[in-house]
């Protein structure tokens, strides 16, 4: 009987997609299994400030094939999605909107160019490109392939905070649905991004709206229309809801990280519907530069306990929507959501609808999610208030009663948020130099401010590596251990303790010396059926890393992961350029240039060996290492 019920439920799920959609899902999942995300940042000092095109392509004996391209509204982070292979990456400022590199435009390659080798699933990071004025011939060999690949149509920009309109067809309900049953195709056409409906205004509080499965930002029309736009600014996160949720929440985290680096907003509210709550909570649990700014989290009709039908779909369906694996009630993703509590500084409110039904095969629900899942005790334990409404899963987003409660939550948060926040700020004047002079400037540099004598989370500020003296801030007044970080360099001194005072500018000067560095993360291999772009499988608890050995030109070092380190201890060791290993991360510093053998032994895993390269003054993180489980 249970098997028959499972097959009936699975059939209902699949037939709701339609035959064409099912075929598309199969093809999308098949390609996803050997696809990989590429991350990098475009740096440019061009005065034109025009959109930037980033292209990943294969070049086999002069035969060019475009794998993917992205459009940036301004210099900053890019993401590309490619299948397993070897690729070059090129970027150019598209001054005349032609979608082709022209002689007068600023452009640049990753490397000289260098070929990037991808892996099945996962991601490759650190693929930074510096644009420069064109002095030679334009890269004409990309013009025709890019025109054919794009069909002459420009993708939406994926720069965090790009201005968008909810009326744009890209945000239609149909396109949102396509993100559920064809997430890879959706990502390649639309991307994954936080869009602004109006230019950023530091005087207004941003409210980030996160849609649910098969949804789109248009689901939030009623909420956005009812907002006091003189006080609040709406942001919308648009993502392929059929993708693995580990990938989605990581992308959301990177977009918020970028926005905080740019705007340093003091306050952020997050409002999420359905599966968007699962994505948002995972993001809020991570320590990042923006997390202290989050003051309010509102979830609406979220399946906190997972969805049994997703489990049935994974077990019985001939084609599995990838996010089903994470919405399974017993999934590692659901487990991690409640492995730690939300920070008490975040005011959390849980809303659910109970206008639905129930049957022999389906417990009481809101026509989509069961009450049992929405009211999971683990989620209720973090909530300041739990409120039920006589609405179903869809109607709750256009309910006047819901809006009345939401406005009351906003008012209460405004009244009761931290009134002791110091609004009179201090500033830092940062100087840096290279030893020896003339050293190639790195593409990225960050200022790290760790409150002295405490375990408080450090703050990171973006620093322009090409400006050797610059003022940065504003900064909350207190005493900090201040450090400057550029990967591939040792910073001297590794930190300076400064008392940052309100209304004053403190000075800090650092010297950066090139050093070779090898560092990476370790994960478990995945079966082909579980491979997915941007997704990594954590090492099981039974796996214990015994040693990480590095041998090369005049070097023989071995690390054993520390049993226990605080976040602040890890930060201090890293900033001081001292070798260390902790949990699934390791780093070797001060290495001569050359090739090295890296060997890892771990209980429960096959011995792991690979070849790595260290180049002083350069550090490109390779794809994370995957250990084969016995």
Q: Helicity range of the residues?
A: 10-25%
Q: The CATH topology of the largest domain, please?
A: Rossmann fold
Q: Please give the alpha-carbon distance between the first and last residues.
A: 37 Å
Radius of gyration: 25 Å
Low-confidence stretches: 1-16, 419-423
Gross morphology? globular
Individual helix count: 15
Number of domains: 4
Overall residue-averaged pLDDT value:
91
Into which percentage range does the β-strand content fall?
25-35%
CATH architecture of the largest domain: 3-Layer(aba) Sandwich
Largest sheet: 8 strands, mixed
Strand order of the largest sheet: 10-11-13-12-14-15-16-17
Question: What would you give as the CATH superfamily of the largest domain?
Answer: Alpha/Beta hydrolase fold, catalytic domain
User: What structural category do the secondary elements indicate?
Assistant: alpha/beta
Question: Could you walk me through the main structural features you see in this protein, from its secondary elements to its overall organization?
Answer:
The structure is a single chain. With 630 residues, the protein is α/β, with parallel strands linked by helices. The chain folds into 4 domains: 33-150, Sandwich (Immunoglobulin-like), CATH 2.60.40; 162-416, 3-Layer(aba) Sandwich (Rossmann fold); 426-514, Sandwich (Immunoglobulin-like); 516-627, Sandwich (Immunoglobulin-like), CATH 2.60.40. It contains 15 helices and 33 strands. The chain has an 8-stranded mixed sheet, sandwiched between helices. The relative contact order is 0.09. The model is unreliable at 1-16 and 419-423 (pLDDT under 50).
